[in-house]
């Protein structure tokens, strides 16, 4: 998805292991690692990612969706509200250099539509279970909120 060759990616992986032999990165290093996205603005994405991840999370689909949920739940209250979701959609757009934010692609409208689709409890927020169930049922919403590639029963980040 980045238009880089397998050889380039393998070289970056090797460089990562040289620069971070313990497998840990600080915010500055993570920001530099995401600079390969053309026209991408990575600062907001890294800020949100760092708020959630401090180690490598691997696991099955439900586990990976739970991690994606935690990444969106910035307030750490077990719910994703429209503001949190709007901010995350904007950060994902920034990361990918997405400039078309009009109509249905406007982050606030997209967040409201997603919450409406997933919020079975009608409390205008998404619980972790609503998020997981909704993403598994709707591949388009899953691609927006948890852009991972499925490989068998595990997922790989696909930003």
Automatic annotation (TrEMBL):
Does the record bear Iron in its keywords?
A: no
Tell me which domain of life the UniProt entry assigns to the organism this sequence originates from. Answer: Eukaryota
| InterPro entries in the record | EF-hand-dom_pair, EF_Hand_1_Ca_BS, EF_hand_dom, Recoverin
Keywords of this entry: Calcium, Metal-binding, Repeat
Entry-linked Pfam families: EF-hand_7
In what residue span(s) does the EF-hand domain sit? 60-95, 106-141
What molecular functions are annotated in GO for this chain? Answer: calcium ion binding
PROSITE patterns linked: EF_HAND_1, EF_HAND_2
Would the keyword Repeat be found if you checked this record's keyword annotation?
yes
This protein is called EF-hand domain-containing protein
The record lists the organism as Didymodactylos carnosus
The uppermost taxa in this organism's lineage are: Eukaryota, Metazoa, Spiralia, Gnathifera, Rotifera
């Amino acid at each position: 998805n980045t238009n880089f060759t397998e050889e380039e990616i393998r070289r970056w992986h090797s460089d990562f292991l040289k620069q971070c032999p313990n497998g840990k990165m600080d915010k500055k290093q993570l920001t530099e690692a995401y600079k390969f996205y053309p026209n991408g603005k990575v600062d907001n994405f890294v800020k949100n990612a760092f708020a959630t991840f401090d180690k490598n999370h691997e696991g099955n689909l439900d586990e990976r969706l739970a991690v994606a949920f935690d990444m969106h739940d910035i307030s750490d209250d077990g719910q994703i509200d429209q503001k949190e979701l709007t901010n995350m959609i904007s950060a994902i757009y920034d990361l990918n250099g997405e400039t078309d934010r009009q109509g249905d692609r406007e982050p606030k409208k997209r967040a409201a539509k997603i919450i409406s689709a997933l919020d079975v409890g009608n409390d205008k927020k998404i619980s972790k279970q609503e998020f997981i169930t909704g993403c598994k049922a709707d591949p388009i919403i899953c691609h927006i909120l948890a852009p991972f590639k499925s490989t068998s029963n595990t997922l790989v980040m696909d930003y």
